[in-house]
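User: Some background: our group keeps a shared notebook of sequences we're curious about, and every so often someone picks one and asks for a predicted structure to add to the entry. Today it's my turn. The entry only has the sequence so far, pasted here. Could you supply the structure so I can complete it?
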Amino acid sequence: VTAITKAGEKHVVAESAVMLIDIQQQEEDIAAVEQKCAVLSELIANGEAQALNMSYPRIALAVNKRFIGYTRQDLKEKRYQKVSDVTELMVASVQRGIQEAKHLLAHPETNLPVVDHDMSRIVIRDGSFYVGNNPVMLVGPMGWFNPKEFAGIGKLNFGIIETESGPSRLLKTAGGKVDRGSISHHINELKKSLDANIAYDHLFSMHYFPGWAYEKYPDINSERSDARRVNSHPPGNNFMPTLVGHPEARNIQAKYLRELVPAIKDMPALNAYCMANEPIYMDYNDYSPRSLTEFRAWLKGQYENISALNKTWAANYKTFDAVKPPPQSIVNIPSKEKVNQAVWYDWLTFNNHRVTEYFKWLKSVIREMDPDTPVRVEVPGFGGDRNGVLGEAIAELCEISGMDAGMSYPNAKYAMGFLGASMKYDFYRSIAPGNPVVNSEDHYSYGKWLPEEYFAAHLWESVLHGMDASMIWVWNRKLEKYRSMLQEPQRLEAFSRTALDLLRLSKQIHAFQRNKADVAILWSEPSRKARSGYDSQLAKVYEGLFFLDTPFNFISEKQVAGDGLARYKLLLVNAGYVKEASFQKISQFVNDGGQLILIGDAPLKYDEHGLERKSLSELGQTPNINRMQFSVPEVYADAFEKELKRLNIAGVVRVLDSKGNNLRSVETRTVNLDGELVSYIINYNKKPVDVYLSMSSGEITECVDLISQKTYGKSFELDPLVPLVLAIKVNRVK
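Assistant: Of course. Here's the predicted structure to add to the notebook entry:
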């Protein structure tokens, strides 16, 4: 933009890039992709006529056919830049599909077995989903679907979806009349899922609660009455808006379930029920009279008498009926001057108890009509703490461990942000090994034009740490701010190709998920409730162990109390608040020869109520105990590596640099599967690295990547975020 002064002088006051659009050329580019799809379609037909598995070229064909329609719509809506960008990606995609098809036709010896599982026959066995004798790792979209889309979703190798309903959808009037049309809609969804070979999960969204019920029972809503805003803090989470113990809320929820469950329970595609989406029931949500009565009754079950409570709480109550919870006005975790740890711990534990009891009740209603279909709850993160939903208790209640998590791109330190999500998968796999782990809201970064490698690594990292099914947010063309998988073809194709990889290699993944570990990290709910810096320190400990090529688990205090330590050689503890029963078991572990690393300035110092232990001498022999406190994961990694070496705990295959040092940005684990060594390797460095594979008991001669079928030696360059699953050939040392 040029401004001209009165004197006739010209000044440039603004500059802007201008994109010149040739609409005719864009139409021709789309038509060219369409022509290439026709070529690819013919190649696929030729291959299938020769009994070749053309599944991967078919992915390129399905994705590009879908995006041809999307791109023409974008062109019609004058989204010219998007058309240009997407068309360029489509050309590359369909050309890759053509090359794959031609290579397979020229080299039929590279043909892979067809993956063909009947998803209506899924059962739970050995902590995973199985079809027949085969474990299956499932990937699918999450969103709001038209059942007409299911056939196309199935063609993309997506094997699972979740749809939802709630009381307000069925019970629209106070008179109790049921909307049968809504039930018919879900029956139709299940039929279409079966036709598309997709496992179907149904979410009971109890937050879709009838408006007439709020008006009829004004004390039913935890946000409108008892959970009023405190110090401008939001009252909680809209996904649990009613008081969990309110009888009328339960009556309405039970009626909804008793109408819907009998109608869908015998449909073959039905895989599981999800009892809640991201439920949060904050401790300050419910100070109703009913809640206080229940709290006092619960305390009577925890303490022998009021004197015992007074001793623990440092209080002087005359009766349990006089006991008060922490002040509702306290929003942030208080200091000991505001409320003591004993009161705080009992109140939060009661909150966990009432929420767990609510889900037990919900499951009991379902079981009245359907004794078999597995249930889960989409627990936000680990649960516990102040949000009421204790992850371990909910996992024990359910047949499936539900959660949500995501991995980000880019990341300040690594090629992508993955540690938080991996930690959650490891947690649920450790505390409930008999449950499949389902992430029913799997989030990825929303930036534009992210690399395919990120989306593939996202899914691979998840399953290798315990996830059995992913429902990816989100299947929707309109939610552009989330850059859904329907916005960019490389996202959809990466997810689809990886979904097929995971199905093809489910047996190997299942073995990695159950890799025997000699090392455990203590998971302490009392320490989480105390908010003593435990969580941040725990994350550093986890990262310190992560790249040392050695499998490890979490172990909860409940597992410790049940003799869960017997299987481990080394226990890491950074928990300052630990129950007395756990402390005694840890002492026994050390006295029996177990190795203990105490981390931080006061590990094991307090019991769950904050009462200080007078002595830690019961922990036993000093040679079995190592103490350390550092501020960064890298220093922990150095210290842990020395301890693992001293204790002769090491991975079968090590990934080293040229100098023989451990690579602190490359993850690997190894299993023996049917007599064959299999290792996975992922480089989380932002740049390629040279890796050297090493074994103490043999010489590696050759590695075949089971994903790409490429062959490697014992040293090679590894690109960022390109997972390898290597079948390793070894000359054993005699």
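Suggested note for the entry: The chain has 21 helices and 26 strands. Residues 224-235, 332-337 have pLDDT under 50 and may be disordered.
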